[in-house]
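pasting for the record
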Amino acid sequence: MNLSELSSLDEALHSLEMDLSGSRASIAAQSGIPFAILRYAPSEEFEFRRKIRLFANSLEQQKRLRTKFISVSQLVWESIHKIDGAEYLHKTEALYGSDFAENDIKRRLLPRKDGGLAGRITSLLQSDQKNYDLVFLVRLGGLAPRIYPCSALLNDLQMAGLSVPTILCYPGSSMVGTDLRFYDLPTEEGLGTYNYRVKIYGTR
């Protein structure tokens, strides 16, 4: 099968694999920003989960790259339960509306004394005894619809000092150029200035 016959997801994984074959730094659009985005259609969620696991296994077996998956949604729910629990969230939404509830969650995730979501991700990697070569951030549904922009998360990870090459697995559609729409939701927000700072796999 030639490249033109591949699906958009398969083509994106193929391009990522080719870059990783040379140097892990090849995924970075700029030095000092070891991140990239792997876009896939939200309708491909379950197929994506299967393929990305096979992809990681292949990297470990054939290229000896040590990979790690981090569920962003799990970290978001842990942050909610740590303070008030899901019951508080439901009551807040019922009393004040979804926008207020989303802002309340976002407040917990933004960098504060505990580092917020970016700090949690960085701490997980630093506390692990393994030195990983590649990290996949998956299950971004916990950030929808407008809780925490993915562009802000990448920026906060950079500020937190994350140096491990990291792939943010982004469910959404490709808009104009390299602009993306998270979960295909109607929103005016794209990736902002990160359009020109990280490499995006999965746009044609």
